Amino acid sequence: MATIYDVAERAGVSLATVSRVMNKNTNVGEKTKQKVLAAMAELDYRPNTFAQSLASNSSNSIGVLVSQLDGPYYGPMMAEIESALRAANKHVIIAVGHSDAAQEIDSVEFLLGRGCDALILDVEAVSDEYLIELSQGATPIVLINRYISEISERCIYLDNELGGYLATRHVLELGHRDIAYVSGPKRKHDANERLEGHKKALAEFDVVYKPSLCFEGDYKEDGGVVAMEHLLDSAQRFSAVVCANDQMVSGAISVCLERGLKVPGDLSFVGYDNIPFARYISPKLTTVNNPIHEMGKMAALWLLKNIYKNDQLEVTNVFVPELVVRGSARRPGNK
Amino acid sequence: MATIYDVAERAGVSLATVSRVMNKNTNVGEKTKQKVLAAMAELDYRPNTFAQSLASNSSNSIGVLVSQLDGPYYGPMMAEIESALRAANKHVIIAVGHSDAAQEIDSVEFLLGRGCDALILDVEAVSDEYLIELSQGATPIVLINRYISEISERCIYLDNELGGYLATRHVLELGHRDIAYVSGPKRKHDANERLEGHKKALAEFDVVYKPSLCFEGDYKEDGGVVAMEHLLDSAQRFSAVVCANDQMVSGAISVCLERGLKVPGDLSFVGYDNIPFARYISPKLTTVNNPIHEMGKMAALWLLKNIYKNDQLEVTNVFVPELVVRGSARRPGNK
DNA sequence: CTGCAACGTCGTAAATGGTAGCCATAAGTC
DNA sequence: GACTTATGGCTACCATTTACGACGTTGCAG
């Protein structure tokens, strides 16, 4: 492989000039520039990234840590991050934290050890303190899906409470009063925020929150199955079910269908996240839009702006969820 | 940050010895080893990966190029690759090719330029010749989802024709004779292979293949929608629809439901891929299992075995699809 | 008992391929 | 003639890996 020396020699210029041409910060005469460019092309020269990284102490790589890679949730986010970063010629190194504190920390260390210039983190298990301390280190971080007031400008997040509120208010406005809620895991921040929103909406309509109508799911389809079976078997009355994410809705609906219940005839459902599949499930899911892909993109832009000093980029930190009304919820008793 | 030099000094040994302790390939006396280890711990020493890469000319990173990151398909694959590689302390750099030749080639160059030790490629648009040539380069590659006879040992793939055959044979065995087929994009290898399997099954049952009953979709939900509308509007008779992937089935079913058609009462469906959602769609999808996550894992293991010389790893190149019978297909006329 | 080869252990120093800053020089500009 | 701009030529530096060689110990043959 050709080195920068070979290029310099072939172009008849010095090392320094070649370096100047590549890092177009200083002035180089047009003619010499062309000579150098020609030499680089002839030799099929590619700067050795290892050497560049060593000398400049930066790798042009961004570590992205997500909770999981499968499931409908993170794909769109990763896609946006990759494309935004790639356009800036940065590359993304991925790691998975599995919503487990030890694994999350381990992954952060791993990414740091790999010399990432910055980190995009979607972590759930790790403490606020850990993240605050981490943010004071040499490697900049951005948080997706999490709000920590001390480092709020590094947080890209959704107003989950508002989303939870919107979902429940929708069924309340339709006339439902007996509303079951399938929450996400209590250890997850967003799950609790969504639940708070749910409670807030109930309170606003003077409906008392019954813990017995709230079931803690796992954010997966199967959690919806288990929750629905539990709820149905508990012989409690309810005409609507609000789920903390769409995957659980789909699980829950599948149980209803199996038991001969009509959706939304007998039971109304509202989901959360607006995953791509939501519109192809039958009935089409009424849900709360979670612009996760935009948040991914924003995290990438934040980095580009703040780390690589690419200004003229506008970043928004907080995203507001919106209700997407489709067909899974309607007035009670209106079969 | 402490350097290897600091460690050497503190341990009272030379640079080389410290290096030897880290890369446990050569012999170091137990006593010195302990001294070095102690010094490293005291200084919280972490080798600088940039320098390691420069000196060793290897980065411990694997480039993974996939067609897309969103959708239900690649997530599980990426998850397996990441976990297998991470366990071996390698990291994965991702790139997206978008099923476009130019972008795929660009991504390969990008990954190569980043000094990846090896590449895992799931590419569709690029030619066999390109890949054969690439495989002769310095950087080893593994292909997922593609078979090229010249480099067959580097291919990890599914017998797609068999899968297509299985899907169609299933509805044939149920008694269907008028069978529509929604194919994937003709430019994709796997789409054509699946279609071949379909034709083979038809022939076996002496049913003539009608091009008018075959519609080219795009492998996405919306393609299923478009295909179904087209098929339904064409006023042709058919009692079963075989789709080249599950996403299109879900789109197709949503059209049927909207038009008041019962599934599988009026129309039977068979999908392909067995995506996680397949069992939560109503009716639960009868489909062909595509062990994409296992193939991802296998690709990673192949690399570990062949590049990093980690023997005692068994690798399988070809995976066989299996029919998963659930509820979306039944006998014709049996409502 | 001795001589020496083999071996394990460790240090020295040379790559590895760049970046970046400094200063000198030459040519062009006002 | 002072000033600016383009370029060359050095050199220090980045943190490792690795070839090569030195040194001491051991075991074995003569």
Structural account:
- The structure is a homodimer of 335-residue chains.
- With 335 residues, chain A is an alpha/beta fold.
- The first copy, chain A, folds into 3 domains: 4-47, Orthogonal Bundle (434 Repressor (Amino-terminal Domain)), CATH 1.10.260; 60-158 and 292-320, Response regulator (Rossmann fold, 3-Layer(aba) Sandwich); 160-290, 3-Layer(aba) Sandwich (Rossmann fold), CATH 3.40.50.
- Chain A is 43% helix and 14% strand.
- Chain A has 12 helices and 12 strands.
- Chain A has helices at 4-11, 15-22, 30-43, 49-56, 74-87, 101-113, 128-135, 160-174, 189-204, 221-233, 246-258, 292-306; strands at residues 61-66, 91-96, 118-121, 141-144, 155-158, 179-183, 214-216, 240-243, 268-270, 287-289, 318-319, 322-324.
- In chain A, the strands form 3 sheets. Chain A has a 6-stranded parallel sheet with strand order 2-1-3-4-5-11, sandwiched between helices. A 4-stranded parallel sheet of chain A has the order 7-6-8-9, sandwiched between helices.
- In chain A, α11 links the parallel β8 and β9.
- In chain A, α1 packs across α3, α8 (160-174) runs parallel beside α9 and α10 (221-233) crosses α11 (246-258).
- The N and C termini of chain A lie far apart (73 Å).
- The relative contact order of chain A is 0.11.
- Chains A and B meet through α4, α5, β2 and α11 of A and α4, α5, β2 and α11 of B.
- Chain B binds a DNA duplex (30 and 30 nucleotides) through α2 and α4.
